[in-house]
Amino acid sequence: MKTLPAPMSAREFDELFQKVRNWGRWGPDDERGTLNYITPAHVRAAATLVRSGRSVSLSLPINTVAGPDNPRPAVHYMVQTYDVKSDIGEPQFALDYLASEFHGDCHTHIDALCHIAYKGKLYNGKLATSVVGSQGPTSMDITAYAHGIIGRGVLLDIPRLRGAKWLEPGEAVTREELEATEKAQGVRLGEGDILVFRTGHHRRRLELGPWSCEYGGEGKAGLHPTAMLLLHERKVAAFLPDGDGETVPSNVEGVAYPIHTLQIAAMGMAAADSLQFEELVKVCEEERRWEFMVVIAPLRLPRGTGSLFNPIAVF
Amino acid sequence: MKTLPAPMSAREFDELFQKVRNWGRWGPDDERGTLNYITPAHVRAAATLVRSGRSVSLSLPINTVAGPDNPRPAVHYMVQTYDVKSDIGEPQFALDYLASEFHGDCHTHIDALCHIAYKGKLYNGKLATSVVGSQGPTSMDITAYAHGIIGRGVLLDIPRLRGAKWLEPGEAVTREELEATEKAQGVRLGEGDILVFRTGHHRRRLELGPWSCEYGGEGKAGLHPTAMLLLHERKVAAFLPDGDGETVPSNVEGVAYPIHTLQIAAMGMAAADSLQFEELVKVCEEERRWEFMVVIAPLRLPRGTGSLFNPIAVF
Amino acid sequence: MKTLPAPMSAREFDELFQKVRNWGRWGPDDERGTLNYITPAHVRAAATLVRSGRSVSLSLPINTVAGPDNPRPAVHYMVQTYDVKSDIGEPQFALDYLASEFHGDCHTHIDALCHIAYKGKLYNGKLATSVVGSQGPTSMDITAYAHGIIGRGVLLDIPRLRGAKWLEPGEAVTREELEATEKAQGVRLGEGDILVFRTGHHRRRLELGPWSCEYGGEGKAGLHPTAMLLLHERKVAAFLPDGDGETVPSNVEGVAYPIHTLQIAAMGMAAADSLQFEELVKVCEEERRWEFMVVIAPLRLPRGTGSLFNPIAVF
Amino acid sequence: MKTLPAPMSAREFDELFQKVRNWGRWGPDDERGTLNYITPAHVRAAATLVRSGRSVSLSLPINTVAGPDNPRPAVHYMVQTYDVKSDIGEPQFALDYLASEFHGDCHTHIDALCHIAYKGKLYNGKLATSVVGSQGPTSMDITAYAHGIIGRGVLLDIPRLRGAKWLEPGEAVTREELEATEKAQGVRLGEGDILVFRTGHHRRRLELGPWSCEYGGEGKAGLHPTAMLLLHERKVAAFLPDGDGETVPSNVEGVAYPIHTLQIAAMGMAAADSLQFEELVKVCEEERRWEFMVVIAPLRLPRGTGSLFNPIAVF
């Protein structure tokens, strides 16, 4: 089953942008956006989901191999190994070095609210060029999430609904299909939840090998922009996709990445890219539940537009 | 009050090493070490500590400024800012780059079990040079912790016990002082716990500025090696210090870093370095409790000897 | 005309290795190898070739774009631009950052003598594992060339001889063809000369786009191993190729890169990789000469196995 | 003897800026600035200075150690050593990685013309913010010097004139002292020459250790701004100093780095920083001459604001 992407005009997109826009909702200088939906009660409730004590990484291994979807591979080198004797005595140390330009399709990372501008404006209407200069952002950087994000994660596994291994590049998931998935799994997205959205992107990569998922390449499967209305109504706090949520090519005239635009610039949502759920789905099936506690702990990087991270689901 | 460090001979240290050694305890190829102490029941119990829903970072901000304790500053650059228009339409993106040699005294990081060798041997008796080559470790790398570490954190705040702002460089905390701190705070370290050990290192840095805490410099405050017996008996699973747990100069003849040696090489303990608890202590005082859930999510870095990370305490 | 590569057995290769081997020729601890052929008289003579005063780079632009022949792209970021005002007054500065793993097929670089081991031995018979540890080489690093290499460059332009734009991947140039090229161009390689060897590699890349020139890919054009006898007899001091001199796949059983092996490990030759001569050939044709002064100035990098560089031809 | 720095008002500095300004002199889009002074005849003449065939590096070794004058140390790691066997046969390779933010007081580098803006303008009056964006400069980058700079180098050794080992931080060299040095050494700076300007900065560092040579530190010795009139009148093409030519603190009200401002923004001069002449002065004394051929070969880095380099003097 291939979802036909309904094309959207620029004007329709701007109307949608207005509808889901949270500018000013939590004050003019808010830096937490939809994380404001997560109350202490939500955190407590999320903790009650810890029953079997199992935990699962939602991160890809850091990838140092260039490829069609990894034009900026991480670099990782040993700094010192055990051929080096210390002149002050035992012990000896092995050390390493990691460098990464982490945005893109191959590194599991979270975006800061300063990462995306639509028509020159960031979340809350801030002028993009005023916030981000050559020394990095002066506000809405990734340290806004420094103390972690803890909440209820809800997996919506679209290939499971479809009875497919994965969605094909270019396919778009609608609001209706999200709701059908909720029903099939017996879960319902609610206020302050963390949506874990699976298209099977990484499963496809494991089986078919890497492909270029950008414009000019094969593209990727993601959400249809109108699905964002559901996330807005339900007051979803954060978004963790395999792929990055985007359908490429997009369904919107003149907007190459409408999902990031709506989530980050309009809604102020904590959004991440390029996770993998191949371990998660096994645990969900074994546990027969699609809700769990999620803990997100981005590196505490002043002026970061995002961060490599390793989100953890706890059952 | 200055604890007089009781010097320890090389022979005494080797006896201590034998006493706390967990080699073979969980099989010859175990890569989880003392994390084996954390059972599902411990994880569940840790989750029940989530009551107020507050969370606190235990990480320093990533530090790009060279200094006496930061000879290898992280580098962080903008890759792209909002002067770049996309030729495929909206939105625009701000991107950055981070590189780090993360071991050392200024970057909050966790160590993998391959990071330390004593007399040529790693945890479980593995030959250090066989495990770690120029392409990095072939086992006991940081991906052994990929699925996160979740447990009960117990803060032992030594300056609080002493009525001091911080411990001075060179001071060593004994087993007896740890036990006195437990009593004063009404907590008791138990099996599978994560010891959060505070010397006030970062408080001192905030007030007095950075100093060289290595050999040849002023040194640092930490544990006395015999204190490791307590951690061993109590079956502590992980260790999160400000500073790095070491007293510099050390109290052991010929062993410059005895704490890392015992924790990592002998015990197989998940050990971290260079955290900060200045935000944590405020919350502990407000909550009037020194136990909380801790979530540790190292980057999923194959062949890493460790990882930058942002440990989170949840109350 | 396609040169049929005559296959060479492992035994034949070892005999060739012995024949061209300069181990001990300039003493057991020599680090200059065939640069010893360049006498002050040769430098003086090279300087007399400067007549028109034109100079030409033999370097590729530094390449930050990943591709089939560039799996480890250089990274280049702005550190600061003119949005940053100094608080100590004028002027303002723009700054940048460059990082590179420079060996490979896309970065113009020179190799140090420690870069290649054959059967565990470096040039002069040094044990490879004794010279190069995790902290880099303790001798024969690129600083052996710190004071520059100045000599007579002689271009041998094989595609010109063949009347082709370039050699195809897999084609091997024999000693006979080098001699035919000398004759056609009216030049003769002599003692202390710098051989500038053109296969048209970069011309092919400009016209056809990048390809994988390694094993498992399309390969590359280069020298036949026996051609090294000519370089040895003529006492050539240095080697500057487009491509890297290697024919891939190689003509030698069990030796993937025989040219590097002979040049660096056996002969101690200053050898470079991945230059481009597209600007050079135009000047040569205009000047009607294929000899010129060459200046090689590697970065002064202690413990470097090589260096990015920009070799200059002066006419 | 300490040269008393004559303070200069902002107005006087602007008059000086006008006097030495070469904007428009070689056309509105010129990117070579004072290199236009170097004619083919100058290159030929420089080559005739090659008589003994000796060559000398004017570069510091690349410095990976943080210190008061090296807040951004280069990083250098081994990528692979001889523990790695190839699965396609001999030979084996040792590889490394170098990363550097090369501007500053400890890395020998050359500046591109886009590196400095005075009152928002670059050389030739270009608007700084228009030329340099987050993706680097669109003109006047270091590739303007891609084909190398070859000319006559003239060493003016100020400590030699003064009978001192070095100049002390804060001391400024006047036009008169440059002329006295010319006389003492029997040389005269002329059109198209490369001025090699020695304050003994690196000699001082070798003997006394590193110091902070920036504002807030001890400062450095350099030129007095009025000395730039001599360079302008004599049509000097390029400037190679130990230190960076600047006196810190500067002699100009409101202008922290007047020498760079005049050289680069006003004159369009090829200017470099942080060379060392300790090897050069020995050769000059032995050869009894202070003129030689200089070859400058910056890395061919598109959009670079400068480059690490290894300038070579040939006698």
Question: How would you characterize this protein structure?
Answer:
The structure is a homotetramer of 315-residue chains. Helix content of chain A is 24%, strand content 20%. The first copy, chain A, has 9 helices and 17 strands. Chain A has helices spanning 10-20, 40-48, 128-131, 158-162, 175-185, 201-208, 227-234, 258-267, 278-287; strands at residues 55-57, 75-80, 92-93, 95-100, 109-111, 116-117, 132-133, 136-137, 149-157, 172-173, 194-198, 222-223, 238-241, 270-273, 291-296, 306-308, 312-314. Chain A starts with 9 loop residues before the first helix and ends with a strand. Chains in contact: A-B, A-C, A-D, B-C, B-D, C-D. Chains A and B meet through α2, β1, β2, β3 and β4 of A and α2, β1, β2, β3 and β4 of B. β4 of chain A pairs antiparallel with β4 (95-100) of chain B.
What layout of secondary structure does this protein have?
The structure is a homotetramer of 315-residue chains.
Chain A: H1 10-20, H2 40-48, E1 55-57, E2 75-80, E3 92-93, E4 95-100, E5 109-111, E6 116-117, H3 128-131, E7 132-133, E8 136-137, E9 149-157, H4 158-162, E10 172-173, H5 175-185, E11 194-198, H6 201-208, E12 222-223, H7 227-234, E13 238-241, H8 258-267, E14 270-273, H9 278-287, E15 291-296, E16 306-308, E17 312-314
Parallel strand pairs in A: 9-11, 10-12, 11-13, 13-14
Antiparallel strand pairs in A: 1-17, 2-4, 5-14, 5-16, 7-8, 9-15, 15-17
Helix pairs in contact in A: 1-8
